[in-house]
Design goal:
The chain is an alpha+beta fold. It has one domain: Pnp Oxidase, Chain A. The protein contains six helices and six strands. A six-stranded antiparallel beta barrel has the order 1-2-3-6-5-4. The radius of gyration is 15 Å and the shape is globular. The chain starts with a helix and ends with a strand.
């Protein structure tokens, strides 16, 4: 777990706000006992977490694809090639949604904006990347983004 006390407090506030604004249907599924606390989220999301990431096309269509997600400092981060369709969409329309769904027992869904991350400037994030990926991949010219969450929902059984 790489989150500070401030990161966990901010994440908990986001989870609580999201839950309070959830619709009736979602609240029937994500009952209080099925929610995770910020600390539980950070404990479960270590290493690489495969995400299904949705971006938005120019004509408003969602496009979903897998990315290597890294949960760091209370937020999902991901990377791709700078010339990927994914980052073309993000540069024009940064709104994204992503879900980590390793099985029926756990789901973490986030909705927000993708914000570029400079891997050379953010040495903490770079260190985490290097623990997961070989240096050749990290330094291959890939670009990275952090999802600044507007809403986040957790589910566990």
């Amino acid at each position: 777990m790489r989150e500070t006390a401030a990161d966990l407090a901010e994440l908990q506030a986001l989870l609580d706000r999201s839950y309070e604004a959830a619709g009736v249907h979602l609240l029937r599924i994500i009952t209080p006992e099925r929610r995770l606390t910020a600390e539980q989220v950070a404990e479960r999301l270590t290493g690489m977490c495969l995400l299904a990431l949705a971006t938005v096309t120019a004509d408003g269509r969602p496009i979903v694809g897998p990315v290597d997600g890294i949960f760091y400092r209370g937020a999902f981060h991901f990377g791709s090639a700078p010339d990927s369709v994914r980052f073309k969409h993000i540069r024009a329309r940064p709104q994204v949604s992503a879900t980590h769904l390793p099985g029926e027992e756990l789901a973490v869904t986030v909705h927000g904006r993708a914000v570029p991350v400079d891997v050379e400037a953010d040495l903490g994030f770079r260190k985490v990347l290097l623990e997961i990926h070989p240096v050749e991949l990290v330094d291959s010219g890939a670009v990275y983004a952090r999802i600044e969450a507007e809403r986040m929902f957790t589910f566990h059984m």
